[in-house]
């Protein structure tokens, strides 16, 4: 995907508090990322430029051409994003969303398992969701340790490239396994949070 003369591999969909926090992480490491929301690129551009020169405001359609897409929209809007592409084959989708909806409204499924159904064909990974935006926006490298991000997916080979991205952003990724198993520790379930939600954990650099 190209915007101007820049090749884009990553996109953040949603430019609220979590989307902006993630954009700060990309900017800190000079990694180019497209950002898009329901607002026009012209509206997003001033804030994107303020965060850093590698944060590029984009239309939704252009942003969705990226190989790796981070969902940072309100959970109720993920279906709209999913319908914006006819085919999600070859895409990696990182679910940074949380939902307070009762399980009964999601067919009794955890939020990521429910959302994954809308992105058929994508490699779907839960990640970057367990920290509040203010924490996620800060430098994850503190006194030689790295802030942990928990990753989970039903496809084992989907986690490796997301773990690499997390490391490149300065985080320490930990693989929790499948969404319904270890991944349940970082899921919102109705109004009951998994035990790892909001846990700000650091791992010493090896």
Attribute tags:
single chain; alpha/beta; 4-stranded mixed sheet; 7 helices; globular; disordered N terminus
What layout of secondary structure does this protein have?
Layout: E1 2-3, E2 6-7, E3 10-13, H1 17-28, E4 33-36, H2 41-51, E5 55-57, H3 60-63, E6 68-71, H4 78-82, E7 92-95, H5 111-116, E8 123-126, H6 133-136, E9 141-142, E10 145-151, H7 156-168, E11 172-175, E12 188-189, E13 192-193, E14 202-204
Parallel strand pairs: 3-4, 3-6, 4-5, 6-7, 7-8, 10-11
Antiparallel strand pairs: 1-2, 9-10, 10-14, 12-13
Task: Describe the model.
The chain has 206 residues and is an alpha/beta fold. 27% of the residues lie in helices and 23% in strands. It contains seven helices and 14 strands. The strands form four sheets. It has a six-stranded parallel β-sheet. The longest helix has 13 residues, at 156-168.
TL;DR?
The protein is α/β, with parallel strands linked by helices.
